[in-house]
Backbone:
């Protein structure tokens, strides 16, 4: 059974930082694109960023560029989301996702709550 487990969320003041982790089990994602999404209350889930299988490239939503960084450690089957200069509008549940063999976001974690206070 494939499982993605996020951790590292919490409450932080505006301007602060958090580092989210996502540990995968049940399947290796070392050759898969991994990504992060988030969902704010009352809003649809939105793309935050994604990283190539080897970590050589990453792309980000405009809202994340310059503040968030995705990295991965394939030996640990883990992907990270470093979030700096956090804003209240970054508040939401953050989800880790992994690409399946069909190229879709097939695997999802349960999410971790991030709350940024003003």
Residues:
């Amino acid at each position: 059974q494939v499982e993605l487990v996020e951790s590292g969320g919490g409450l932080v003041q505006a301007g602060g930082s958090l580092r989210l982790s996502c540990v995968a089990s049940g399947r290796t994602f070392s050759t898969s694109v991994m990504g992060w999404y988030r969902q704010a209350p009352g809003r649809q889930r939105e793309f935050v960023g994604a990283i190539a299988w080897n970590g050589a490239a990453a792309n980000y939503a405009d809202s994340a560029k310059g503040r968030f960084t995705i990295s991965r450690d394939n030996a640990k089957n883990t992907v990270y989301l470093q979030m700096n200069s956090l804003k209240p509008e970054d508040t939401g549940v953050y989800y880790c996702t992994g690409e399946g063999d069909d190229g879709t976001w097939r695997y999802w974690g349960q999410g971790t709550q991030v709350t940024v206070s003003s």
